[in-house]
Amino acid sequence: MNGKPPYASLNEVQSGACNAKSDVADAGATFVLQSKGTWYHAGFHLTTAIVGPTVLTLPYALRGMGWALGLTSLTIVFFVTYYNYALMSKVLDHCESQGRRHIRFRELAADILGSGWMFYFVVTVQATINTGVSIGSILLAGDCLQIMYSDLYPDGPLKLYHFIIIVTMVLILLSQLPSFHSLRHINLASLLLCLGYTLLVVVGCFRAGASKDAPRKDYSLSSSKYDRALNAFSSIAILASVFGNGILPEIQATLAPPAEGKMAKALRLCYTVIFFTFYSAAISGYWAFGSQVSSNVLESLMPDSGPSLAPTWLLGLAVIFVLLQLLAIGLVYSQVAYEIMEKNSADSTQGMFSKRNLIPRIILRTLYMIFCGFMAAMLPFFGDIVAVVGAIGFIPLDFILPLLLYNMEIRPSRRKPIYWVNLSIMVIFTIVGIIGAVSSVRKLVLDANQFKLFSNNVVD
Description:
Layout: H1 5-15, H2 27-32, H3 39-50, H4 58-63, H5 66-97, H6 105-113, H7 116-152, H8 160-174, H9 184-209, H10 225-243, H11 248-252, H12 262-289, H13 297-301, H14 312-332, H15 335-345, H16 355-378, H17 383-409, H18 417-446
């Protein structure tokens, strides 16, 4: 198979339903990654995976680079990620046309690269990203509830961890939706919510920027070349995190076969939403607050001292929209964990809702959400971790591996520009990833004195 028969044989055993030659699908494929969706369902899933409240960190990313470099970097990452995801979709389509349908990132990488360690590398990075995003979603949703509670009851007794418990309980209930495909209506609502809160934040930023109470606009960068360089690479790592998802093969797996060409439409839908949300939030937030913008622009609109810089109703509605979308994001990024669990615990020869499969599903998914909720309560310092996750997790999976897989599987001629374009992007983003990881970890260490386990506030 593709010149690699020894490993292909092992991969068929590992992948079960991932290989079209398998007669019996494993439960992870049969139940969690049901292939029943349309291209627009995949577009809803992909938009939820990429366009989330991290869009509110984009003005902060521009703060580390300034107008020219910031918008240039945003545009480069926009086109590079679209290009990378399109190529990965073509690789998946090509494999399917050869009778090697893959529905898991880890098995796609292991099959093409022919290396057992690659399987475990991808599953480790992917699991780290997905669990980290699930934890972050619970944490930020709890923070949203705390913001609303504190506004209504400034001296109320409830702490951040109480709200994290509430969010975790809601997600435990929602996590019992059995498959990725069953989230399609939730993810349509998620798409509308992200458009809604982005519009509210943009209006709030333009209003704040024109207000007499707004801070003085200062777009200057650090006077130290060393600090400027590290801040720029940290900002690029944030952009990688914001544009990353790491689960495109699993999303494409939800498409009813044949999937060829459908993901291209889903990508166009997703990137249309990305264009309007990312650029409007980045430009309006940085214009309004300049070098004083917070890592979450909503906090700049609600300063600790002085009046709010946007109407209370607008801020409240934006927080509610963010809260609701965070629930959808937590569900989407849990699907890989659920697929792994059910592949090893469920029986695909029995019904999805049979007692044999239902009881383990309820127990395992409940335990997973309790773990994520506990970690969110214990480690409430989300802001600095975003850049680290982007550099260490999203850059390898979304900026490097898709191009490597394309060059290895499609094998474009070295005389063609696409081969060298892919190689150049891989080299550039490998360097960016390494430097971004160093600068992000450096900032994490510098801010460590603010971190406190089970803190009552989210540290940015």
